[in-house]
Automatic annotation (TrEMBL):
This is SRPBCC domain-containing protein. Transmembrane segments: none annotated. Belongs to the AHA1 family. Residues 15-161 form the Activator of Hsp90 ATPase homologue 1/2-like C-terminal domain.
Length: 165
């Protein structure tokens, strides 16, 4: 598997690592914060094991629905989660992104959680898997938008974690 880590985001959360890990791995928690602001997430499946899959749909405020999946590669509770993320249909078959014919089919995401004095630092690295030059270029071109999207998603995670304290 050829991966180019093109994106790295580090963020500290005022919550213990165990809770942050659960927020990423338990369907009822993930549904409370994952995705762009204003979108809702419906979790159809979350099979947390190497080779297992998360499958869910996001609905925009206008009612547009997009499906996506994570295929888990490595799970080390509560410190590490590695998964391949793709757009999908309702059955979990990988499809092209609805917004670009050259968006990479698969993105490898590597999430590391480190706790210090009750706070958790999350390092999120992501990049295309086995991507063509055109797919790499598309990812690079949209990297600022992707980073901004994850900032909003992480803001929602921060708000969710604050509610849990």
């Amino acid at each position: 598997m050829s991966v180019t880590y093109a994106l790295e985001i580090t963020r500290e959360f005022a919550a213990p690592r165990d809770l942050v890990f659960k927020a990423w791995t338990e369907p009822e928690r993930l549904a409370k914060w994952w995705g762009p602001k204003g979108f809702t997430l419906e979790v159809k499946q979350l099979d947390l094991r190497p080779g297992g899959m998360f499958l869910g749909s996001q609905r925009s405020p206008e009612g547009h629905v997009m499906w996506g999946k994570f295929v888990y590669q490595e799970i080390t509770p509560p410190e590490k989660l590695v998964y391949i993320q793709s757009f999908s249909d309702e059955e979990g078959n990988t499809i092209r992104a609805p917004f670009s014919p050259v968006w990479p089919l698969e993105i490898l995401n590597d999430l590391t959680l480190i706790e210090h004095e009750g706070k958790t630092t999350v390092t999120f690295k992501g990049g295309p898997v086995n991507a063509s030059p055109e797919e790499l270029q598309a990812f690079e071109g949209m990297k600022p938008m992707v980073q901004e999207g994850f900032k909003g998603t992480f803001d929602q995670l921060d708000a969710y974690l604050a509610e849990q304290r």
